[in-house]
């Protein structure tokens, strides 16, 4: 699993970790029963605080996405992917709403915004 953290993101690092794990669950990279890296090893690999990693795991556990097995580690739970996908969609809608507000402040037309989205979308290929 490849986790890319963005230091310039408005999201705290622990939330970026939570998002990365959720995306990996959605795309099948992480399956129910898979063991997650230990808190310490993940923190070391990503060069972040153990506290940050622990907080991300606690968040995932509170959302019922992972569970801990004392002495063995953390594991992915069986997840209702529709619920997880819906949550991701809501977050996307919030991000797009924010972008639309910014575009309106810049007096961009809908066509200009759509052109920009298409340009950025194609640039990812």
TrEMBL record:
Domain of life here? Bacteria
Query: Under the GO molecular function aspect, what terms does this record hold?
Result: DNA binding; DNA-binding transcription factor activity
* Coiled-coil portions: none
| PROSITE patterns linked to this entry | HTH_GNTR (PS50949)
Entry's SUPFAM superfamilies?
Winged helix' DNA-binding domain (SSF46785)
Q: Which UniProt keywords apply?
A: DNA-binding, Transcription, Transcription regulation
Q: Which InterPro entries match?
A: Tscrpt_reg_HTH_GntR (IPR000524), WH-like_DNA-bd_sf (IPR036388), WH_DNA-bd_sf (IPR036390)
SMART domains, per the entry: HTH_GNTR
Describe the location of the HTH gntR-type domain by residue ranges: 11-79
Keyword Protein transport annotated: no
Q: List, alphabetically, the PANTHER family matched.
A: GNTR-FAMILY TRANSCRIPTIONAL REGULATOR, HTH-TYPE TRANSCRIPTIONAL REPRESSOR YTRA
What's the name of the protein? HTH gntR-type domain-containing protein
What is the species of this protein?
Mediterraneibacter gnavus (strain CC55_001C)
């Amino acid at each position: 699993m490849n986790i890319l953290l963005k230091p310039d993101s408005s999201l705290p690092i622990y939330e970026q970790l939570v998002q990365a794990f959720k995306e990996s669950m959605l795309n099948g990279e992480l399956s129910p029963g898979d063991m997650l890296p230990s808190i310490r090893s993940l923190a070391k690999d990503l060069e972040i605080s153990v506290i940050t990693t622990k907080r991300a795991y606690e968040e995932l556990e509170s959302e019922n996405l992972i569970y801990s097995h004392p002495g063995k580690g953390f594991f992915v739970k069986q997840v209702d992917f529709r619920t997880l996908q819906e949550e991701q969609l809501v977050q996307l809608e919030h991000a797009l709403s924010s972008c639309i507000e910014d575009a309106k402040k810049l007096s961009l037309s809908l066509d200009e915004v759509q052109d920009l989205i298409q340009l950025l979308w194609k640039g990812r290929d």
